[in-house]
Amino acid sequence: MGRFDSTQTRVTPVFRSLEGMPSPWLDRLLTLPTHGHPARLSWAGRSTQVDEIKYGADEKPLPAPVKLLDWLIANIQDVTGKGLDSLSDHSRDKRRRLLARDPDVIAEARARLTSNRADNQWFVLEGPSYPDVFISTPDLIVVIEGKRTEPVPTTATTWMSPRHQMLRHLDCALEMSGGRTVLGFFVVENGIDGKVPEVWIRAAASTISQEVLDGCLPHRTASERQAIAKGFLGVTTWQSVCREFMIDPQSLPDTV
What we know:
By secondary structure, this protein is α/β, with parallel strands linked by helices. The protein has helices at residues 6-19, 26-30, 66-75, 89-99, 103-115, 165-175, 198-207, 210-216, 222-230, 238-244; strands spanning 34-35, 52-55, 133-136, 140-146, 181-188, 232-237. Helix 6 links the parallel strand 4 (140-146) and strand 5 (181-188). The relative contact order is 0.20. The mean pLDDT is 96.
């Protein structure tokens, strides 16, 4: 957020331009990211005709997988030390007892999770994921996280660490994919050399390291973790996107 908010100064104007193009553009966009999984998933032969796109003020919420929520109930951690702040007395007490691994409250939380899930309930320890851009086609789901001034991606949530932002998006998207191929990548600002900054190359490598995959996706099988990792295409830059689609970079607002 702030003067250089990436949603308003990069995501919205760029994807509004792409959305208005008369010819298919998604396939070209997917070729731009680099430094993703070396055996990344292929979308060859799959439809890239966009049937839904959400971004800006209309971001699409992707609910957390139920298996993750169940795992969190028994493995809750207060990552920031402030997880019990701003809660009702009832929710604070229940979550404090979850943190203490109270078996009765764990059992109650799991029972409630299967019968009455709602994101504002004390037993729901991760809310929906909101990728900056959500794109679907008959065969694909694409989740994109746009950055501008942020030096690194988000790597934890209130109740879980590690929980890398991109893996969270991919995990949630896979849950509602209905068999479609799930892909994701970052778009960031050019480095001073005009290329993807080294810090984001390192972040991309970290995203698909085995340690991070295991830590972020404890509710997934080994094969599911690898499918999620292979859907990570890597990182590209706003300048590369503008160059590919002949979008004048001067048309992008510098500040809000």
